[in-house]
Design brief:
The chain is of the alpha/beta class and 208 residues long. It has a single domain (38-191), classed as Rossmann fold (3-Layer(aba) Sandwich), CATH 3.40.50. It has helices at residues 2-6, 20-32, 53-56, 59-72, 84-92, 112-119, 130-139, 154-157, 168-179, 196-207; strands at residues 45-49, 77-81, 104-107, 124-127, 143-145, 161-163. It starts with a helix and ends with a helix.
C-alpha cells in the first residue's frame, strides 16, 4: 500500500484485501482434510525445499546447506522433495554421500497437495521458497528461510519465519535455539483468512 501511494495512487484507488495465496492454501487444506497423517511419517519431523539458483548452483554453498540438513536430521527426520535442478547439481558436484545413510528422506518432486499433506504436520520447515514462508506463517508452523534476504518481510516481522542465512554454522545455531525452546510463534497477519478473493469480488462488484 505504501508503494502504491508512492506511485501516486489515491486512497480511494487502494484496497487492502489480504493475501490471495492464503485462499489457495485454505482451499487445498479442505481438499486434504480427510486424509490421515501418513503412517510412515516419523515424528518429530521437518520438511525441506531447496531450489533457488543462488543456493544450489554454488557447490560450496550447496554442500554447506546439505551438511547442515544432515546434522539436523540426526535429531529430526527431514522430508525433502528434491527439485530436478537441485538433484542434478548434487550429482554434478559429487555431493550424493551427504544424502546417504542420514535422516534426510529424499523424495521425488511432489504435487502441491501431496507436499502439503506432509509439511502441514511438520515441526519445522526449512526452505528457500517464497510461498512456503507465507504458508507456514498462515498455519503457525516454524520456518527457517535458507537465504540472505526475503521479499516476504511480514513473515519475519509478524509471522513464524526466521531468516537463517546459508552458512552451515548459522543454520545449525538457529536450530539449536529452536531445539532449546526458542521457537518463534508469531501471529497470522491481518486478513490472511482465506477470504481475499471474496473481498476482491465484492469491491469489483460495487465499483462496476
Amino acid at each position: 500500500m505504501e508503494n502504491l501511494r508512492h506511485e501516486g495512487k489515491q486512497a480511494d484507488q487502494i484496497f487492502f484485501v489480504g493475501n490471495i495465496m492464503i485462499d489457495t492454501l485454505h482451499f487445498s487444506l479442505e481438499k486434504i482434510r480427510s486424509r490421515p497423517m501418513k503412517n510412515d511419517l516419523k515424528k518429530p519431523c521437518g520438511a525441506v525445499t531447496l531450489h533457488r539458483p543462488s543456493n544450489v548452483d554454488d557447490r560450496d554453498r550447496l554442500r554447506d546447506i546439505l551438511e547442515a540438513l544432515r546434522e539436523i536430521a540426526r535429531d529430526m527426520t527431514l522430508y525433502f522433495p528434491v527439485h530436478p535442478r537441485t538433484e542434478k547439481n548434487i550429482r554434478q558436484f559429487g555431493l550424493q554421500d551427504l544424502m546417504v545413510d542420514s535422516g534426510v528422506f529424499a523424495l521425488p518432486p511432489l504435487s502441491y497437495l501431496d507436499f502439503l499433506s506432509i509439511w502441514r504436520h511438520a515441526d519445522l520447515v526449512l526452505t528457500d521458497s517464497g510461498g512456503l514462508q507465507e504458508e507456514t506463517t498462515a498455519l503457525g508452523i516454524p520456518c527457517f528461510t535458507i537465504r540472505e534476504n526475503t521479499e516476504r518481510p511480514i513473515t519475519i516481522d509478524e509471522g513464524t519465519n526466521v531468516l537463517v542465512g546459508t552458512e552451515k554454522d548459522l543454520i545449525l545455531a538457529a536450530y539449536r535455539e529452536f531445539r532449546n525452546g526458542k521457537r518463534k510463534t508469531g501471529k497470522v497477519p491481518q486478513l490472511w483468512d482465506g477470504r481475499a478473493a471474496e473481498r476482491i469480488v465484492e469491491i469489483l462488484a460495487s465499483r462496476l
